[in-house]
């Protein structure tokens, strides 16, 4: 029997099985961390709570992430990554910049609504003055794709003459996320203050319509209004 035949006759070891198992464990711990930190914040969330939520052990968290702070950084990076993945899946009609911009606004508002953990984790990090995300080497990598979507839509609109050339993509992006973020992060206190439930679909839809109108009025030229 030739060496090649002998090799083919031997059972093949499953390549990457160990790596796949390690990745599964790490992902499970990360998902649990996001849930725990979103509920309790960085200070209130503990290694023990996270390991139990992941049906794992404390030592596995230290093995994959090193410490609680590094795990929190990884959680922040993961929620930004998820946002970018979801945004990248948008099918924007760039031939119609106004419609595309409406799609972007709707996406942001609905993403915050469907993923409250995104907002609560960022709230927790802002209480710490951004000291954890400042340790991340990926923070700016995640911001670039998000802003680039708005930038491309804005450039198309300017080229067509329907958008004002004086609007900066960074400012427009911050306007959109601010209007979506504030509504979601303050919905409970605002509901009590205003005397109406901001989680009611009709109220949310009214706000969505208002935000779209505000964003369009900011970018559209007088002739396009």
UniProtKB/TrEMBL annotation:
Keywords, comma-separated and alphabetical: DNA-binding, Repressor, Transcription, Transcription regulation
Chain ranges of the HTH tetR-type domain: 23-83
Molecular function via GO: DNA binding
Biased composition range(s): Polar residues: 1-12
DNA-binding stretch(es), residue numbering of this chain: 46-65
Source superkingdom: Bacteria
Region annotation Disordered: where it falls in the sequence: 1-23
A UniProt-annotated Pfam family: TetR_C_29
Listed PANTHER family: HTH-TYPE TRANSCRIPTIONAL REPRESSOR SCO4008 (PTHR30328:SF54), TRANSCRIPTIONAL REPRESSOR (PTHR30328)
Protein's UniProt name: TetR family transcriptional regulator
Record lineage: Bacteria, Pseudomonadati, Pseudomonadota, Betaproteobacteria, Burkholderiales
